[in-house]
Fold this sequence. Notes:
Radius of gyration: 54 Å
CATH architecture of the largest domain: Up-down Bundle
Number of domains: 2
Distance between the termini: 134 Å
Strand content: under 5%
Order of helices and strands: HHHHHHEHEEHH
Amino acid sequence: xxxxxxxxxxxxxxxxxxxxxxxxxxxxxxxxxxxxxxxxxxxxxxxxxxxxxxxxxxxxxxxxxxxxxxxxxxxxxxxxxxxxxxxxxxxxxxxxxxxxxxxxxxxxxxxxxxxxxxxxxxxxxxxxxxxxxxxxxxxxxxxxxxxxxxxxxxxxxxxxxxxxxxxxxxxxxxxxxxxxxxxxxxxxxxxxxxxxxxxxxxx
Length: 203
C-alpha cells in the first residue's frame, strides 16, 4: 500500500464520486481510472479510457480511391510527313501552269514563248540542258550565254529565259517558235497529246 498526498480540491472531487457508503478513495480512483471486475460484467473501462477507445473507434481510415486508368488518346498520331518525290523527267504539270489566267498577262508572242520556256525550266531543272541540242543549219537556238548565240548568226535577238541561266534566239517567226517548243517538249519527255495542248495555248 502506497500513501500519496493530494490537495483539498482533488480530495473533495474524489469524495463526490462515491457510489456507496464505505467506498474508499482507492476504490473510487480504481473505478474511475482502471477496469474493475464485477460479478455482473466481465470488464469495464474507466470513463477516461472509454472515451479514448471510443474516439479511436470513431476514426475510420480513409479509403484510397483507385487511380483511374490512363485513357488512351482517341486521336491518331500524326504520321511523319512523306517528302514529295523529286520531279523526274517529263512529269511536271506544265498544262496546270499554263492556265488562261496566267497566259492572259502576255500580249506579245515572244513574251509568251519565254514564259512557257521558263515554266519548263522550273519543272525540269538540270534536264533542261538537253535543249542545247536544238540547232539550225548554221546556228544554235539555246545557250547559257548571250554571246554564244550572237556568235552563231546575225540578228539572232537573244533573250534570257526568265529565272534560268539559259538564253534563246527570238528573231524567228511563230511557226519556227512552235517547232522549237515541240522539240523542247519532246526532249523533256512529254507525249504527243501534252505537246499539242501546250502548242495550242501558244499558237
